Amino acid sequence: MAVNFPHSTSQPLLEVKDLCVSIPSYGRSVALIEHISFTLREREILGLVGESGSGKSVTATAIMGLLDTPGLKITGSVRFRGQELVGLSARKMRAIRGRDIAMIFQDPMTAFTPVYTVGWQIDEQIMAHERLSRKQARERTVQLLAEMGVPDPTRTANRYPHQLSGGLRQRAVIAMALSCNPTLLIADEPTTALDVTVQAQILELISTLRDTHGSSVLLITHDMGVVAETCDSVMVLYSGRIAETGLAEALFAHPRHPYTTALLNSIPPFYGERPHRLPAIAGTPPAPHERPAGCAFSPRCHDAQTICSTIPPLSPAGNGQQAACFFSTSGQQEH
Amino acid sequence: MLSAFLRRVGQTLIVLFGISVLVFLVFFATPGADPTARIAGRNASPQTMEKVRHEYGFDRPLPFQYATMMKKLFITRDLTSYANRGEQVVPEIIQAAPVTLSLVCGSAVIWLIVSVAMGTLAAAMKGSWVDRTLIMLGLVGISMPVFWLGQVANLISLSRYHDTWLFSWVPGPGYVPLTQNPLAWFKALVIPWCVLAVMFIGIYSRILRADLVALAQEDFMRTARAKGLSPARILVFHGLRTSAITYVSLFGLDFAQLLGGGALLTEVVFGLPGVGRLTYQALTNLDLPLIMATVMYSATFVVLANAVVDILYILLDPRVRDGR
Amino acid sequence: MLRCLTFAARMNFLRASTLAVIAQTLSVSVVILSPAVAMAQNDSQTPPLPHSGGTLRMVAQSSGGTLDPQISYMALTRQFETPVYDTLLAYPKFAGARAVPVIASLAENVPQPEDDGLTYRITLRKGIRFSNGHELNTEDVAASFRRIFKAGSPTAGPYYSHLKGAKECLADPAHCTLKEGITTDPASRTVTFHLDTPDPEFLPRLAWSHSAILPADTPASDTGNTAPPGTGPYRITGYDPTRFLRMERNPYFHEWAHDAQPAGYPDIIEATFGLDQESELTAVENGQFDWMYESIPLDRLGEAGDHFAGQVQIYSQLLYYYAALNTTLPPFDNLKARQALNYAVNRHAMVIYHGGPAVATPICQLIPSGAPGFDSSCAYTKGASPEHPAAEWKAPDLEKARQLVRESGTAGQKITIVAPLDGRYGAMATELRNTLAQLGYDASVRSMTQAVQFSYIQNSDNRVQIALTGWQADYPSASSFLQTLYSCTTIHPHSDNSLNVSAYCNPDIDALMDQSAMLALKDYDASNASWARADRALMAQAPSVPLVQIRRVTLLAKRVHNAIATLNDDLLLSQLQIK
Amino acid sequence: MTTDLQTPASPAPSVSLWRQAARTLLADKGSMTALAVLCIIVLACLLAPLYAHYVAHTDAFASNVAGSIVLNGHEVDIMQPNDNPLHLGLSPIGPTGHTAYLLGADSQGRDIAARLLYGGRNSLMISACAAVLCLFLSTLVGVTAGYFGGITDSILSRLMDIMWAVPVYLFAISLSIITVRHGLQIGPFTIEADNLLIPIIIIALVYVPYAARPVRGRVMVLRQAEFVTAARCLGVPQWRVLLFDILPNVLITLVVLGPLLMALSLLAESALSFLSLGVQAPAASWGTMIQDGEGLIYSRPVVAIAPGLAIVFVVLALNILGDGLRDALDIRNATRRSR
Amino acid sequence: MSIPAPDTTKTLLEVRHLHKTYQLPGRKTLKAVDDISFSVRQGEVLGLVGESGCGKSTLGRCLLRLLPASSGSILFDGQDITRLSERKLRPLRQRLQMVFQDSSASLNPRRRIGDLLAEPLRVHADPINGKHTADMITARLTELLDLVGLPRSALERYPHEFSGGQKQRINIARALTLSPQLIVADEPVSALDVSVQAQIINLFADLQDQLGLTYVFISHDLSVVRQISTRVAVMYLGSIVEIGETDTVLHTPAHPYTSMLTQAIPHPTKGKTGLPAITGDIPSPVSRPSGCHFHPRCPYAQAICREKAPALENVKPSHMVSCHFPLVALQKIYV
């Protein structure tokens, strides 16, 4: 079932339905993500948030068609502008990748092939998708770098990745991703490896992209703060399943799923009173192969009941939010 | 850059000096190594022995002898063999070098092409039967003693199947200079090339495959895929180009060792009068001037190759370029 | 005198070229057998005219180093130098046992010893020119003999030290004048040699290659890779020790004595170096080369015999293999132990290691078949004893050997055999080790390159108990086998040049050998008979274990004829005809 | 692939990494086949005397050129004369198909099959011991250089450089030539020239730079490892850090290097023996047998081919096993190149 | 110059003019720690914050003599430990411990947990009873496991069988084995998931309560530092730019850099506040700008900032800042 964001009137750009990815392990199939469904509209920034192992990167790479581990099984549907991407031929997928959907990764340090200049690598992507000479490509590269706020873009284009600082590198990565004017940008933890001051700059850059380039962004992160700062809407993942979705402001103000609540509570507050002890969540997020039956969060949940041994459906929880919890509508556990 | 270069030269000289002193001392510690009797001839009278001893300076202190030998080897370049009167060692090595060079270069071309093809193919088809077959082939290549493989090749091409169309063109063992008859040169060397290349094909295809497979996990490879590049382009421009750094550095060292005499077993089995065989002969005859010259020659190659590899590193890897 | 010899073993291609060079022998050969050779002998009687011309291409594993004829001690180099240089006297250049004794070459006459063997007088032939056009004169002769000392010829001491003033020349070569030793009269072209003590072998030594006559202005040092001018039918025009040697006709040559230095048939003789034996054989079989210098490899003897019987060359040499027993170290300081090994060793097996009876024959005496003084006898075979020797070797006598070992009380001792590294030596050494093991010794083999081994076993410091080696004479004589190897004078402790490897010293036998040698100045046959007695007397003491005498087996191309192998010069390159 | 895609760890509780690796290895068909082949070959070689004495009735060390055997009721010479007009040359008997001289005789009339087994004993023994000794020395050198660094490291590294600068076989040959004459004297101990210890020591020495390098690299990584820092922080003395923290982790490198080194040693041993510089007569090794067979390659190729195949099988099995170990222990990068 | 601590208990650790420089090839020097002085009182928690490359980890390691200081001195409980020999230092090691960032890397993968925890007991004698007996060790290990909240069965297991949070508990337990007084914690929670991070922070707090520990707590995360610290020191390019009471420094920063940092952190409860306009990347510590190292990025920089490095001086009692133009007047107080 798709998640709709009522405020957005624009056309859905990406529709993901019941996306499941599983991998065989010790003779059985282990689901990495289960029944992920959402819709991303044009010029929308959607935050995909969750702890490690929650399946957020798998979701993104599955959409990009970059999962190629032997034995991996992908089911469900990913429609990009109405075109089905699951099961699309490698050649057709390649034409979409980089041109219509671009992706940036966590570590700008390793995102570039170390032996080529940054400019060369951006040119390469442009030339892979458009019939341009190297000179024309380079012109666009320099222009893009300038747009990304890179000082002295001509010179920077001729430098090798290791010669750039982390911030510049991430700008170059974003410039490369945007080089063919993609309509969808998937950013997988784009700021995790960066310092806060640099992170702030990059986040600023990303949030302006929809205006400057008309791009939608799927932002993947584990940092609630980043989501709150940047995204229009949020999807919280827990152990490969959607825990809760909703508009960013509403969700952070009134989380409907106990996990979201607990997660927000366990972040040490920067302002206001300092609690003597943080309301931590007991235990650790389960690895995919040891995910409990029923609600994956139930073993760590204060309010777990017998019913939680079945998987709760994602159901509306008011305020445009949806939560996968039997007690979501009633329980607003704010501690 | 200059200081790095000078340091390099200094290190090289230390290594060369160390080797030469070691060889020199070991020679004098080895019983039966005194060449006087061999130079003087059978049953030469004690006076003749004395004359030889004096003429060759064997009655001088060791450091003096060492210095003289080095001077003759590097400055006047007229060092003569102890085992074979009147034979100058420098021209001898200069004679042998082209043979080894022909052997090693040809072989290197083969192993370069085949190992890159095999390694790339195996990496591209990782996990398939093609991959497994290629891995196995590589392992078999590594497992065969080169001298034995050479013998078997000789047996097949020169004896058992020499009369069939397949091998009737194979000339007997021996070397024909390229300048003399290029076709005969090629015919004489093509089987040695292949035999020598087999082991390196095995080693290098494995290394390359492992490297490429490891690289496939790298972020930048994922980025390249995310860019929508074709698999071939990713493999060649991003994978192979990056692997080239490791590959070339190993290649340089092996190539140098072979040029420096490491191919001696192949040379021996195929009767090629190259540097390796020369060194081996010098060693078995305990012919110090020739040992010294060949060992210096081979050490120089290895050290030189190290330097060339470093330069290649700088050319291939911009990170190293900035590192110094 | 003589020199070590060895080789003939199937030098397989691994073996060092340098070593091969040293190993080659200056062979003194007697042509024997082989229908092809027999035919060739008949041809040699015909005048050379009809088949002259063409290029003879021979092939050898490696070159023989320096070309200086007074220094070079390599059989292969000797092969090339024979048609290039001449000595005053020479062994006749025809095959068979008649090719002794020496005849006149550059000299007009074979001199008669005067003053009880202290003076020899010769007259030089007229009109002989070196290949540089210079005419041979008496000063060239005197200078050449001085040069033997000045340039440090290996045999200067052993062969020419009887000349007056030679001792001074040996001690101080730079100031060697030899003015009392050699006097010349340019007008009458006479050269007179003055000796301070009689030398019974002086005449053979005037035929020995180190006394080759060179122009007087030849530098008094090793000329290395450039060959000085000579008087023979060819001159060496190109040489690269690792690749080739080329000889062309000497434009100034004319035949002065056919038997001493015959005119040559081929216009050009080319030698190629660098092929191993296997390839040499294949190449000659295929007609790419005319003659392979090395012996046919053991495993291909059958192939050569089957398919190329008419081209195979087999000729005897004064060459045999033996195990020298160190008579100063246990267990072979015990006569019974030495005799035991002589009885026990299976010489038939040794023959098999060399390719069978066609190639090798058992030998159990110290003078080989074909040499002066040879009188076939075998003290150590089944049913024989030193007191009652048999005519030839039949079978090993292990019973007797074991008994002797028991009596000697040496059983169980540790023995190390020092052998050359190369193929047939290895096999012989292993066989020897087996035999020693059968006799109850704790035996092992230590092998090293032949070049190294030969000096190693001579040095008493290395305490070698038993050494496997071979011996070949520089020229045919009994003394080179007995006196050189077993007289007290050839023991030089702590020196690499001590040819008496057995370190055997017996003054009585020494006296007998001296007597035999001096007898030669008067009575050649009596001398030979005396040598035979000395041989038996020595063998009774068993200072070594003679094993096999071998023949050389090589292959000629189909187009080559007139192969003549002489006593002293191996195959005569100049006499090969190309059709 | 993404970082999220971790293969789930095996569910069994409390296993050391060693046991986990052993399990992986046991599940690897290739490695197990290789191990089985190795075991069979080793066992066969160990049983060599049984075969020689009770099955083939030969002495694998005694020359027997003048002897004969009875085949199908006929007495046959072991060295058979050639049937040509010149009576040139003799050929050893070929494969008989009987227990005696199953694979024929070599140029000295010895039973090849029996020698093959005896030769295998020496070849395997030398290569295994050389590998172990080499690992020991490499660990000594590598750990010293890597752990103490500084001048110690510089000196040892230069020394290794010197050894690297000479092609490995040439180096081994040089050492052999020196020792083959007089044996080796180490202080009061003398090793006879024909002692198998000599090739063992030489081969071990020659490969020290090759094995010491990964060990040193590993130690240098380990020295910087946080758990070593943690141990230092706890005041654990250096020797304890070396013994309990560094060495157990270096051990993986050694275990992986082991079979590969043994494979290399076997090849080196055969090369040395082939040049008559390894195992000394009358003892056999596969290398000396190939050398023996070289002279018969045209008439009796089996003499050289049989030991060659034995080498190929063993080295192949060792390499497969080494690969299996490396995958099981998962330290691909530490030992990617051990040649 | 040491800083007057907020309360009157005794000074446990005092750092005076500490320098740590590295010589790089090409005559470059890296000043990782540049003239740092501060002191830590017994029972307090000093938070050390800063972005990557600011030298906070180097400083932490210098404190424990894991790295030799280039100059300056470190006094622990009045005793100068800067140049003590390793042997003399060993008794002090019992009182001074460290917890590392990478919880896996700091545990030897080949040793059982029991073995790892017992190691310090084996090498250090008990001050009263002498050598630790097996029974004493077992008793102590059980005690430790209880303290950090791990099951006793953990002793028999290997590190790889634990999750990241559990491993960090093991690390803490090991640091506690010898009952130290001071623990330097180097980014102990930054590699952990948010939900687990809270547990570990709580554990630190609990242990402090129970055992009266003193911490030097290094982190780049201001929220985490705020949660645990009594005082905070902010580092930039090897120097302390500001130090004082936690809430004073974080909520009323006097240094423009601290201010920039605090504004740059996105926080879920903050919502979309708009991030501050931040320019430039952190310069490389090898080529530090002249004068005040922060001047190229500082919005208030004047000419003097380029030339003269400001000294660390009090703006208030117990609040020191190194700036020519401290922001006391500009501070904004959030509620």
From TrEMBL, chain A:
This protein's name: ABC transporter ATP-binding protein
| Taxonomy, superkingdom | Bacteria
Output the InterPro entries linked to this UniProt entry: AAA+_ATPase, ABC_Ni/Peptide_Import, ABC_transporter-like_ATP-bd, Oligopep_ABC_C, P-loop_NTPase
Species source reads Acetobacter thailandicus
Topology with regard to the membrane? Peripheral membrane protein
Q: Which residues form a coiled coil?
A: none
The record's PROSITE patterns line, in alphabetical order, gives:
ABC_TRANSPORTER_2 (PS50893)
Task: Name the keywords, alphabetized.
Answer: ATP-binding, Cell membrane, Membrane, Nucleotide-binding, Transport
* Residues in ABC transporter domain copies: 14-264
* Matching SUPFAM superfamilies: P-loop containing nucleoside triphosphate hydrolases (SSF52540)
**Cytoplasm as UniProt keyword:** no
Q: What is its main location?
A: membrane
Which terms in the Gene Ontology molecular function aspect does this entry carry? ATP binding
Family annotation (Pfam families): ABC_tran (PF00005), oligo_HPY (PF08352)
Q: Which CDD domains match?
A: ABC_NikE_OppD_transporters
Under NCBIfam families, the record lists: oligo_HPY
Q: Which SMART domains match?
A: AAA
**Protein location:** Cell inner membrane
Q: What is the lineage of its organism?
A: Bacteria, Pseudomonadati, Pseudomonadota, Alphaproteobacteria, Acetobacterales
Instruction: Give the family from UniProt.
Output: Belongs to the ABC transporter superfamily.
From TrEMBL, chain B:
Has the keyword Transmembrane helix been applied to this entry? yes
What's its membrane topology? Multi-pass membrane protein
Location, primary (coarse class): membrane
Tagged with keyword Lipoprotein:
no
Please report which protein family the annotation says this sequence is part of. Belongs to the binding-protein-dependent transport system permease family.
Q: Name one Pfam family in it.
A: BPD_transp_1
Q: Which SUPFAM superfamilies does the entry mention?
A: MetI-like
Indicate the transmembrane segments per the record: 12-30, 99-122, 134-156, 184-204, 290-316
InterPro entries according to UniProt:
BPD_transp_1_N, MetI-like, MetI-like_sf
Q: Output the lineage of the source organism.
A: Bacteria, Pseudomonadati, Pseudomonadota, Alphaproteobacteria, Acetobacterales
Which keywords does the record carry? Cell membrane, Membrane, Transmembrane, Transmembrane helix, Transport
Localization annotation: Cell membrane
**What name has this protein been given in UniProt?**
ABC transporter permease
Domain of life, source organism: Bacteria
Sequence ranges assigned to domain ABC transmembrane type-1 in this UniProt record = 97-313
UniProtKB/TrEMBL annotation, chain C:
Its localization reads:
Periplasm
Q: Which SUPFAM superfamilies match?
A: Periplasmic binding protein-like II
Q: Which CDD domains match?
A: PBP2_clavulanate_OppA2 (cd08506)
Q: Which residues form the Solute-binding protein family domain?
A: 103-490
Q: Which residues form the signal peptide?
A: 1-40
Transmembrane feature ranges: none
| Keyword Signal on entry | yes
Keywords assigned by UniProt, alphabetized: Signal, Transport
Q: What family classification does the UniProt entry report for this protein?
A: Belongs to the bacterial solute-binding protein 5 family.
**What is the protein name stated in its UniProt record?**
ABC transporter substrate-binding protein
Species in which this protein is naturally found: Acetobacter thailandicus
From TrEMBL, chain E:
Database matches in Gene3D superfamilies: P-loop containing nucleotide triphosphate hydrolases
Q: What is its main location?
A: membrane
**One family name in Pfam for this protein:** oligo_HPY
Q: Which PROSITE patterns match?
A: ABC_TRANSPORTER_1, ABC_TRANSPORTER_2
Query: Keywords of this protein's UniProt record, alphabetized?
Result: ATP-binding, Nucleotide-binding, Transport
Q: Report the sequence similarity comment from the record.
A: Belongs to the ABC transporter superfamily.
* Name of the featured protein: ABC transporter ATP-binding protein
| Source organism of the structure | Acetobacter thailandicus
Phylogenetic lineage? Bacteria, Pseudomonadati, Pseudomonadota, Alphaproteobacteria, Acetobacterales
